[in-house]
Amino acid sequence: MTDTTILDRANVVAAGSAATREDAIREAGALLVAAGAVEPGYVDSMQERENTVSTFMGNGLAIPHGTNESKDEIKRSALSFIRYSSPLDWGGEEVRFVVGIAGQNNEHLEILSKIAILFSEEDDVQKLLDAPDADALYALLGDVNE
Question: In sequence order, what are the residues at sequence separation of 6 or more whose Cβ sits closer than 8 angstroms to the Cβ of residue 12?
Fold first, then answer.
């Protein structure tokens, strides 16, 4: 792991354990904390953001992230990626993928763009659903580190 790696293999989970949107945000946030990318308070701000505006993006994807006020809680830009075997109810939408994001200096905008491109193609989303394990998911997500 280097400080320039946005998505570490350790932050890719093929079978998330959360059953609710709130738990999924905590699960994604906990990976960012464990990676040393954010302070624990950042996870609370991810929840705050979700309470204000849904981070559902379509195609089974949600990208929870902190509020503007939580930028001081970010130590480095990073992602967490969790796939769920059963859809989560995300404010009335079905979510199978939760991508926690923390970005310094607007780096998250480029990261979001790469993820949006990946999830804009239904074939690519199906490959992510079909991936047998976290290693395969990480391989499919490799572009986010470039």
Answer: 80, 81, 82, 134, 137, 138, 141
